[in-house]
Amino acid sequence: MGKISKIQEIGKEIHELQVNLGRLQWSMFTTGYDFGVEDAYSKFIDGLKNKAHYEEILNYKEKELEIVEKRNVEILYNLFKPYHLSEDLNKLDMEIQQKVNELSKILNTFRNTFDGKSISSVELNQILSTNKDREVRKRAYFTKNQIDKPMVDAGFIDLINLRKEYAKLYGAKDFISYKLEEDELDVNIFDNWISQLHEMLPTMNEAREKYAKKIICDDRIMPWDEQYIDSIISPSLNKTVDMSNYYTNLKEMFDTFGIDISKFNITYDIFPRANKSEWGYNFPIETAKDSRILANVKNKYYEYGVLLHETGHGIHSFLLNPEEIILNEGVSGIISEGIANLFQGFLYKPAFYSKFFTDADKVENEFSALREYRKLNSLRAINRIFFDHSLYKNNITSLDDIYDLYWKNSKEVLKEEPFGEAPPWAYTIHFTTHPIYLHNYFMGDVTCEMLTKVFKERFNAEITEKPKDFGEFLINEIIKPSGRYKYNELFKKISGNDFSLKYML
Question: DSSP of 285-302, one letter per residue?
Fold first, then answer.
């Protein structure tokens, strides 16, 4: 691409600044120590504020270029543009990042207290998954709200208001519209979601009521029942496993698709410890060169789900072309999460679980029933997505305002009444670090359903019947071109259809 060599040089310069920032963020999330994240972010932004570079990009936007060359310029332009609108916007951006950094440290190091003792999120989830006493599960669930007040006291509402102010000064309708534009998505993409959900709610609720009566002897499944019901449907989820052999187990599964993860520089940090983030992450430090996985597992089979998901992110990175630095910036978060979700789904397939269980028929029956139950509940994910949106559509001045919004959103989206006074929300790290992002997981699931359907039509086989063919299909149809197209364009290119929730129904 000699025509855009100057553009590629600019992209490489910005990329190097991002790599340095990513390494420091990894250190902060895995150790709790900040070795200069704010300073590295400032240098990254200074790179994007470079006027000479921006003028060069604007110059290239006016040139006659090939499609892929134009895409490179478009991606870089979208990255630089916000930092050349006003100095006030740039100051707000730094304030936002500083506040995110402060709040992230709290999220990473905070530990809940249960029955007078410090408890990890892994241990809480095991209570929610296995404890037969519904009241104990309820207490475990509400234990998660202990971080709500510390986050608000430390400035979470200030962060929301800074983001609102930024979007207004930018010229967007609201912060949601700003983020959708940033992600190259239609600002009206969510318009029909609630109406489509409401069409399905009676059927969903009727089925959920049957499960509730059968398993917990009640009419309504509560949040503290969800993981427990999963475990009753499929007791194998809670099988105790030896996690020390996790890498070999992951490698053998990906080998079936013709993907050898031992060739990739993927770092795993998977066991809990003090001051380490309790979430699951993939840090794509440098595409196709350095990918790092943070997780928190102990000894249960279901915990392999996060390892499969984050490894899915890792292989996506390593199957991209490291020379296409700018195009790799254009990969949609939906495609990224979709690929990760797809591999996470193999937790319930013989290709992965066969090495852990001897009674294959019994386990397959369990996981088949679980998949049916999970699909029944899949549209409920819309509730959390719209709660995230509601933070930016309403005036918030206190923690009670956030709780009121939580219940109002639940009533409007799921038509459900409150189940307590202080619902846990701040433990979901995305509200702080990745706002207006949760739709990527849900839309990623829709993408998985589409890919499964298209593969079956083209190869007249299920994925597990021709895994190596599927591996090639995934690499050639999704991964390699994933930065060259906007999400909706790639979805239509593969399926022949526009994005639609119908794939989940």
Answer: EETTTEEEEE----SBGG
Rounded CA-CA distance 44/224 in Å is: 42
Give the start-to-end residue ranges of the domains of the chain.
2-84
- The DSSP-derived string for 119-158 is E-HHHHHHHHHH---HHHHHHHHHHGGGGHHHHHHTTHHH
For the chain, state the CA radius of gyration.
23
pLDDT in tens, 139-189: 999 999 999 999 999 999 999 999 999 999 999 999 999 999 999 999 999
> Token digits for 457?
């039509």
Query: Each residue of 57-103: pLDDT tens digit?
Result: 999 999 999 999 999 999 999 999 999 999 999 999 999 999 999 99
For residues 191, 193, 196, 199, the Cα torsion angle rounded to the nearest 10 degrees is: -110
Enter the pTM of the model.
0.94
The string of DSSP codes covering 364-412 is HHHHHHHHHHHHHHGGGHHHHHHHHHHHHHS---SHHHHHHHHHHHHHH
- Secondary structure of residue 114 in the 3-state scheme: strand
Q: 8: which 2 tokens?
A: 């590629």
Q: Using one digit for the tens of pLDDT, what is the confidence trace for 276-309?
A: 999 899 999 999 999 999 999 999 999 999 999 9
- Evaluate whether 247 touches 268 at the Cβ level (below 8 Å): yes
CA–CA distance, 505 with 499 (Å, rounded to integer): 13
Question: Is 430 within 8 Å of 202 (Cβ atoms)?
Answer: no
